[in-house]
C-alpha cells in the first residue's frame, strides 16, 4: 500500500546534524540539550541521539554542567578550508602592521554566497571595538565597507539577489533599497574602494580595499573600522590600500 505524503519531506540525518551545529552562534556558544532541541527544531529525543554522535566524534564538547560547546575537532577541521587558511595566514602580519599604523581595528573578509565572513580581526585588547566583530563572524554585504567591495565585484546574479532584498536597515544610514545599493556598488567600482559611515552600527565607520588573486579576481577585502567620531578617511586610505596590495602580492606565485 502506498503511504500518502505529508507534504513536508523528512529531514535526513545529515540535515539534522547540521541543524544542531547551526544552533551555535556568537551569542550562543554554550547550549543545553533543551536549547539545542529548541533552536534546531528537533524533538528532544532526536536531538539527544545526534548530540551524542557529534560528541563522540569530537564535534561537540560536554561541559561540567551538562551543556555543550563546539568541539576542538570541528575547529581543527574548519581550519582546513582552502579559502580560509592561506588567506588568513598571509594576511595576519599585514593586518597587525595596519592596526599598529592606524590604531583602527583591521580585518579581512571573504564572500560566502550572499554574506561576508571575517577571517581575522586585529584590535587592541582594551579597544572599545573589540566586541564589534570576531574571526568567523558573518557580515551583511550591503552594510559594511568590506561587504560592498566584495559585492561590487561579485557575479551579476549575486548582485541581483542581494539588491532584490530584503535589505535590513541596521541604522538610518544603511542602504535599504536596491537602487541605492546599486549606486553604492557602482561608486566602489569607479573609485576602487568602499567607505561606510554608521551603516552597520551608529557609532562606527569603515573603509575597505579589494584583495586580488594573480588573475585579478577579487578574492577578499581588507578593511579598517574606527569610531565614527574619530574616523579620518584621508589618513586611512593610503595604509589600507597598501595593505590590500601587500596581501594581494603575497598570494601571487613568486618568480
Number of strands: 9
Largest sheet: 6 strands, antiparallel
Mean pLDDT: 89
Order of adjacent strands in the largest pleated sheet: 6-5-4-9-8-7
Number of domains: 2
CATH architecture of the largest domain: 2-Layer Sandwich
CATH superfamily of the largest domain, by name, is: GAF domain
pLDDT < 50 runs, ≥5 residues: 1-8
- Portion in beta strands: 15-25%
CA-based gyration radius: 21 Å
- The DSSP helix count reads 9
What CATH first level of the largest domain would be assigned?
A: Alpha Beta
Distance between the termini: 69 Å
Query: Which sequence of SSEs, written as H and E, runs from N to C?
Result: HEHHEEHHEEEHHHEEEH
CATH topology of the largest domain, which one?
Beta-Lactamase
Structural class: alpha+beta
Instruction: Sum up the overall morphology in one term.
Output: globular
Give the helix level as a range of percent. Answer: 40-55%
Question: What is shown here, in short?
Answer:
With 255 residues, the protein is of the alpha+beta class. 41% of the residues lie in helices and 20% in strands.
What does the secondary structure layout of this molecule look like, with pairings?
Blueprint: H1 13-21, E1 30-31, H2 33-40, H3 44-57, E2 60-62, E3 68-70, H4 72-78, H5 85-102, E4 105-112, E5 115-122, E6 138-140, H6 145-152, H7 156-163, H8 178-191, E7 194-197, E8 204-212, E9 218-227, H9 233-251
Antiparallel strand pairs: 1-3, 2-3, 4-5, 4-9, 5-6, 7-8, 8-9
Helix pairs in contact: 1-2, 1-3, 2-3, 5-9, 6-8
Description:
The chain is α+β, with helices and mostly antiparallel strands. Helices cover 41% and strands 20% of the residues. It is built from nine helices and nine strands. Strand 4 (105-112) and strand 5 form a beta hairpin.
Amino acid at each position: 500500500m502506498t503511504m500518502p505524503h505529508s507534504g513536508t519531506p523528512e529531514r535526513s540525518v545529515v540535515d539534522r546534524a547540521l541543524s544542531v551545529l547551526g544552533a551555535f552562534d556568537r551569542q550562543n556558544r554554550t547550549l543545553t540539550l533543551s536549547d539545542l532541541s529548541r533552536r534546531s527544531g528537533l524533538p528532544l529525543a532526536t536531538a539527544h541521539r545526534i548530540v551524542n554522535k557529534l560528541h563522540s566524534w569530537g564535534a561537540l564538547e560536554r561541559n561540567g554542567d551538562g551543556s555543550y560547546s563546539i568541539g576542538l575537532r570541528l575547529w581543527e577541521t574548519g581550519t582546513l578550508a582552502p579559502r580560509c587558511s592561506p588567506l588568513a595566514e598571509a594576511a595576519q602580519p599585514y593586518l597587525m602592521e595596519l592596526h599598529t599604523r592606524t590604531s583602527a581595528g583591521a580585518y579581512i573578509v571573504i564572500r560566502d554566497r550572499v554574506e561576508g565572513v571575517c577571517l581575522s580581526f586585529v584590535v587592541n585588547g582594551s579597544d572599545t571595538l573589540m566586541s564589534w566583530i570576531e574571526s568567523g563572524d558573518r557580515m551583511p554585504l550591503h552594510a559594511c565597507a568590506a561587504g560592498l567591495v566584495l559585492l561590487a565585484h561579485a557575479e551579476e546574479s549575486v548582485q541581483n539577489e542581494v539588491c532584490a532584498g530584503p535589505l535590513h536597515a541596521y541604522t538610518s544610514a544603511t542602504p535599504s533599497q536596491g537602487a541605492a545599493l546599486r549606486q553604492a556598488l557602482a561608486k566602489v567600482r569607479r573609485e576602487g574602494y568602499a567607505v561606510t559611515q554608521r551603516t552597520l552600527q551608529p557609532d562606527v565607520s569603515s573603509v575597505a580595499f579589494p584583495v586580488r588573486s594573480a588573475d585579478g579576481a577579487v578574492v577578499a577585502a581588507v578593511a579598517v573600522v574606527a569610531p565614527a567620531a574619530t574616523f579620518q578617511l584621508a589618513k586611512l586610505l593610503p595604509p589600507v590600500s597598501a595593505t590590500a596590495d601587500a596581501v594581494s602580492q603575497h598570494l601571487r606565485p613568486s618568480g
